[in-house]
Structure prediction request, 103 residues.
Amino acid sequence: MSRQPKLSLASIVAEAAPRSARPAGAEIVALDRPGAPPAKAATLKQRARQMSIYLEPPVYDQLRDLAYSERAKMHALMLEALDLLFKQRGARSIEQVLGETPR
Prediction:
């Protein structure tokens, strides 16, 4: 038994509009053209791996309060903590691992 071909949005729209309702010369244009410049680099969410951490409520509250008082994000403070841990253990810093210069 052969599979039905996957429908594209263009084909669905083309079939939904009656032929008489379409203006003469109207066509569906593909936006993804070969040779077009590549899309911008992936976001952090797309590049990175997610890791969960479980914190006791007082520890979480203290981290949240610290982030609020420093007008920083909790994520940035966690990365700073990891950098300090790496330094204490003699490992490369996050900057060295990523090969980037600081912003």
Observations:
- The CA atoms of residues 45 and 51 lie 12 Å apart.
- The chain is about 45% helix and 0% strand.
